[in-house]
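DUF6265 domain-containing protein
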Amino acid sequence: MLVPLLAALLAQSAPGSALPAQTRTLAPGEQPMRATLADMAWIAGEWRGTSASGEAGESYSAPAGGQITGHFYEMRDGRVTLMELSQIIERDGGVVLRYRHFNPDFTGWEDGTRKPVEFRLIAIEGQRYYFDGATLDRTRPGGLDFWVRIDGAGKQPREIVYRYDRVR
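Predicted structure tokens:
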């Protein structure tokens, strides 16, 4: 569900580093929280909105077969610029949000590593779901603000936000 223009730039956050305001990272020795797919069932449905780059949308299934599956798109000037396939799974007593990113021609960003980008759920505080490097904030009625931390090589970490409204 899930999270665009970031993955190619995303190098998993350095633990314990100074954090921007909306996202968190696990500190050394800190364990992610215990959780199940039931904790994320609310995300099922279709979400549409905007990012700094243009129009965006995500869709998620209800939990089934041990996972929640999803897809994401981002558009600029009426053209798709980025797509993602996503999966929310249970692992080691917790929840992990996983993504694979694709260009409009369906070439994959993570093809060289053969590994998806992963965010582990580290805390739930009210209507905010903190993953290691991303936050899903559903405090806005009918909305979802999806914050992602991007660590660029030699640059200060920054955050981008996707502001969605539930459309079904």
